[in-house]
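Service request form, structural biology core

Requester: graduate student, group of Dr. S.
Request type: structure prediction, single chain
Budget code: on file
Notes: please return the result as structure tokens.

Sequence provided:
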Amino acid sequence: MLFVVLAIAGATAAGVGAERWYGARAGAAARRILRLMLYVLVPPVIFVNIAHLQLSADVGAGVGIGLVALALTGALAYVVSRRALGLSRASTGSVVNASIHGNTSYLGFPVVVALLGPEHLGEAILYDTLVQGPAFFLGCFGVATALGTTAGGGVGERVRAFLFRNPPLLAVVAGLAAPAALAPGVLVDASHVLVYVLLPLGFLAIGMTLADQRRRRPSEPEPLRRAAALAVGMRLLVAPLALLALAAPFIDIPTAYLVLAATPVGLSSVVLAHEFGLHLRLSAAAIAGTTALALPIAVGVTLI
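Core staff response, request fulfilled:
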């Protein structure tokens, strides 16, 4: 766990420092790092661990309950954003995506390994790929293309924007179909090492993004601060409590699921905000706020 804390702090600080060196190019460099992680480094980790995973009844049932919990969280975030705060479509999209998109891989995987042990990584990856995966590649992309200002003018353009290739999801399908022989122990062990590499790399990128946004927009109005606070509360409190409340009457939900349900906002939400025209500063602020608070909450969840 000490490694996780030091990696987050050190990598984020390094990203802030790198922004001062690169200047206006820092934002583009950060997005390239995030895309490298999303489309090159994460898929092999997913494949070998899914192929190696042994499913149980509670683990499988928890997938369905996790999807319902995220759907309810996102719907509540939309209603509060539009009705109570009167946010724009772009800002609402950032709040909704922050609510349903947890950092379940870059941060969640090493936290699960550190708190629960590597034997629980398979459960964590199953949640990430079968719960958080659809929530991101279907839900977050759907929200971004529906509410973003640069996703397209008409319905047809937005539908085409939504049909985005996603190698991590293909890795899930391949991993579920592949025999365990294609995921020997040596590859599983190597994937555990790669998980730790992903953590500092991701926060290096987010440090660069946050510094770049501060340089471009040094201050924000009060309504945006309330929107950021809403996003933090939805992600760290409402999402895990919804999962726990829905699961409690039916199953003993895997602890790894609860840890991942309380992870901070996923780093890729910044990529979606940039590419589809959601509120980039709000997305970055939600990542910063949830990350600063999430580790103590994750530790508390493991004690339930």
